[in-house]
Design goal:
7 helices; globular; 13 strands; about 350 residues; alpha+beta; about 25% strand
């Protein structure tokens, strides 16, 4: 097993310095993702079973937070806009306590404003993005940049489980309920073109209502199956094998179907086979899905167009087509839409419809 990467200690943020003992408004940002490539029960370095996942990174959409401190108020008095983002408010309060302890400055409450991100309930990490952006905004106000392992620990305390968005896109097997890296799979995933869509008409999924089985209850055969998929994904990342990565994602989605039971699943996998996609991935706690293509495959533009037509014929709404580094707009105005991103290509803003 590859050990988790070491993270540096918190260091001052390279931003304007605040006067001693004086806090300033801080800002934070965190990416979102497009669901999971793999999720299940795995063994850590000690042989203990734990829940883990590998997310599919998505360039563009990001959650943003701005924290306005109010010195003299109780540290748990965090107002949040828009209202109802209780996980983000809880994360901000935890970050205030952490940053006050590290800097010796007094803790205080304040106002937290959240913008950007993606629609909630689709399995794209909207709550984790809010939480991480909030932690980073508070840390910025204290003149700190907290290391990823600390951000992960605070995120788990705020929402009980979190996605590895604090690692900014590195492919890792991540224990979402413990906030730790089980394995670094490599520096980056193989290049992918993803045709995104939503299942169930885009209706949000109440993740708290989904049945959760403790990892300790997973049988030996089940754990061996997930460990086999883990080994295959490790090989796919090491060799850049998109076809193998697609097989792993499809197998994981098929296992997740036992809980989510999407009625469109058979149609989605049939479309993938017909248009020559490498596989499908489905968020294991939401409704977002994607068909995965090798950007080096011949006839890519034709395959993507055929995929979009087939999804439409089955009544499955397409959302966005993207590579792991940029979005590819739909429509005839975009020429060469199936071409993969080249190194250094600027990222385009996201265009997710209101679902």
């Amino acid at each position: 097993m590859i050990p988790a990467a070491r993270t540096p200690a918190a260091r001052p943020a390279p931003a304007r310095a605040a006067a001693p003992g004086v806090l300033r408004a801080g800002t934070g940002r965190a990416p979102c993702h497009h669901g999971e490539i793999l999720q299940g029960v795995f063994l850590d370095g000690t042989g203990r079973r734990c829940a883990g996942l590998v997310t599919l990174p998505m360039a563009g959409p990001a959650g943003r937070a701005r924290f306005h401190p109010r010195p003299g108020t109780a540290p748990e008095a965090i107002g949040v806009v828009p209202a109802g983002r209780t996980k983000a408010a809880r994360a901000a309060a935890l970050a205030v306590a952490e940053c006050a302890r590290r800097t010796g400055r007094p803790p205080c409450g304040g106002e937290l404003r959240l913008t950007g991100g993606v629609p909630v309930g689709l399995g794209m990490g909207s709550s984790t993005s809010d939480v991480i952006a909030s932690v980073r905004a508070v840390a910025d106000g204290y003149g700190l940049r907290l290391p990823p392992d600390t951000v992960a620990r605070l995120a788990v305390r705020a929402e009980l489980a979190c996605d590895p968005l604090m690692l900014d896109g590195r492919p890792v097997l991540f224990a979402q309920r413990e906030g730790r890296v089980l394995e670094v799979l490599g520096p980056a995933l193989p290049p992918l073109v993803v045709v995104g869509c939503v299942l169930g008409g885009g209706a949000p999924v109440d993740t708290l209502s989904l049945p959760v089985r403790p990892p300790a209850e997973a049988g030996p055969d089940e754990v061996r199956a997930f460990e086999r998929l883990r080994a295959l994904l490790r090989r796919a990342v090491a060799t850049g094998d998109v076809r193998l990565l697609g097989e792993v994602a499809t197998a994981s989605a098929r296992i997740g179907q036992r809980v989510l039971a999407h009625p469109e699943f058979d149609a989605l996998t049939a479309v993938a086979r017909r248009v020559g996609a490498a596989g499908v991935q489905i968020a294991h706690s939401g409704a977002v899905a994607g068909l995965l293509f090798d950007p080096a495959a011949p006839g890519l533009r034709r395959r993507v167009r055929s995929c979009l037509h087939a999804l439409d014929a089955h009544g499955i709404p397409a959302t966005r087509t993207f590579t792991t580094t940029e979005e590819i707009p739909h429509g005839p105005a975009h020429r060469g839409g199936g071409r993969p991103a080249r190194p250094g290509t600027a990222r385009r803003p996201a265009r997710l419809p209101a679902l």
